[in-house]
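Lab channel / #folding
Pinned by the channel admin:
"Please post every new chain as: sequence first, then the structure tokens as a reply. Keep commentary short and put observations after the output so the thread stays searchable."

First post following the new format, from NK:
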Amino acid sequence: MNNRQTGNVSEDFGKLILRASLALLILFHGVAKIINGPDFITGLVAKAGLPPALGYLVYVGEVIAPLLVLFGLMTRPAALVIAINMVVAVGLVHMPELLTLAKTGGWALELQGMFLAAALAVAFLGAGRYSVGGQSGRWN
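Reply from TO:
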């Protein structure tokens, strides 16, 4: 009795849990940048030879996009923005750790990897019925 187009209640609840987890955990990073400012990021961007003003895009990737994902508005593109944000974060900050293990034996970038994987999953799955935008529409 599962309608593939609309999904069932447990699938939509799973999408809600995934969306909320990803959005809230990324949002903590964005709030820290609101409180402390983006100087660290703009410095890294400048060090990479790019215009420092690009560092302000961190607010899009860690505040605006997570809020959209959390509420289920423009969910797919917002999740892709989070995924791009994670790729840039790895490139600017975590590249030396890419192929290393943590002291506990796990991948040194398991948090960043999980954020990236969750963002891609949300981008492919969409918001589901438990969202402001609902499950209809090509962007949700």
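NK: Helices lie at 9-36, 39-47, 58-71, 75-94, 110-125.
TO: also worth noting, The two ends are 23 Å apart (CA to CA).
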